[in-house]
Amino acid sequence: MKFWKNFSAIFAALILFSVFSVVDANNHTGLIPCDGSAENPCGICQLFELVSIIVNFITYKIAAPLATIMLIYGGVMLIISGGSEERKKKGLNAIWAAVWGLVIVFGAWLIVNTIINSLASNEFSGGWNRFPGCP
Q1: 3-state secondary structure of 21
Q2: To pair with 91 at 20 to 30 A between CA atoms, which of 57, 67, 72, 127?
Q3: Would the pTM count as exceeding 0.90?
Q4: CA distance 81 to 78
Q5: Under 8 Å between Cβ of 47 and 134
Q6: Furthest-apart CA pair in the chain: how many Å?
Q7: Lowest mean pLDDT among 11-25, 51-65, 87-101, 113-127
Q8: What pLDDT sits at residue 97?
Q9: Other CB atoms closer than 10 Å to residue 77's CB: what's the count?
């Protein structure tokens, strides 16, 4: 049992390290999309781009992989339960926690998107994470 606790801790640390060390897919090497120089000045467009980077990071690089890991963990716990009600309950709880976590994350995005699109002008029809006039 101690082996699995150590293995779980090391596996979780490796997953977190790999998630946080990933470079953004939009050719950004960091969190801030500008450096303040004449070639790459900071403005309102970069503020909205920063918000978009943070939302995408939390949604796709933290929530989705973490939910996948929890679904796998729950499934493994169900498979190896061997009739143990405690392990079966732990597995089902992990699966439901992962499902509800994804529902909350993507539901929050959907609710914010719906409210912004209904209250804002037609300029924001592309989505709340895109600012009109910005590339």
Answers
A1: coil
A2: 57
A3: no
A4: 5
A5: no
A6: 66
A7: 11-25
A8: 92
A9: 20
| φ and ψ of 27, to 5 deg | 65, 25
Q: What is the pLDDT of residues 107-119, one digit of tens each?
A: 988 888 788 777 7
CA distance 92 to 79: 11
Mean residue pLDDT across the chain: 76
CA distances 110 to 6, 9, 101, 117, Å, are 38, 33, 14, 10
User: For residues 17-50, b (16+ Cβ closer than 10 Å) or e, as one string?
Assistant: eeeeeeeeeeeeeeeebbeeeeeeeeeebbebbb
Report residue 122 CA to chain centroid gap.
28
Question: For residue 76, which of 94, 58, 103 has the smallest C-alpha distance?
Answer: 94
For tokens 């699995």, name the residue: 4
Helix-helix angle 64-79:2-20, to 10 degrees: 160
Q: What is the pLDDT of residues 84-99, one digit of tens each?
A: 899 899 999 999 999 9
Q: How far apart are CA 49 and CA 58, in angstroms?
A: 14
* CB distance 101 to 63 below 8 Å: yes
